[in-house]
Amino acid sequence: GKGGVPADGKEFRLFVAGTDTGVGKTEAACAVLSLLAAAGLCPAAMKPYESGCANRRVKEAAAAQTGFAG
User: Fold this and answer.
1) Sequence-distant contacts of 36-45: CB under 8 A, at least 24 apart
2) How confident is the model at residue 31 (pLDDT cuts 50, 70, 90)?
3) If you write DSSP's letter for every residue of 5-66 in order, what string do you get?
């Protein structure tokens, strides 16, 4: 669509969930964001809660993979 909006003009939201720390939720979300951006859309990500990580490596890796600052 034009200006990063889907052709039908409707927004959608996707929630990625998993059963444990380290099962690939962030990687899956990054892949979806990358595909949407490659399709000409303007996806945005939000990670409201992060557990199982003593430092910022996961957030930095997600930002590097997608080009989106967290």
Assistant:
1) 37/66, 37/67, 40/1, 40/4, 41/1, 41/4, 41/5, 41/6, 42/3, 42/4, 43/68, 44/68, 45/70
2) very high
3) --TT----------SSTTSSHHHHHHHHHHHHHHTT-----------S-SSSHHHHHHHHHH
Catalytic choice (10, 25, 47, 59): 47
Annotation marks residue 47 as catalytic? yes
pTM above 0.70, yes or no: no
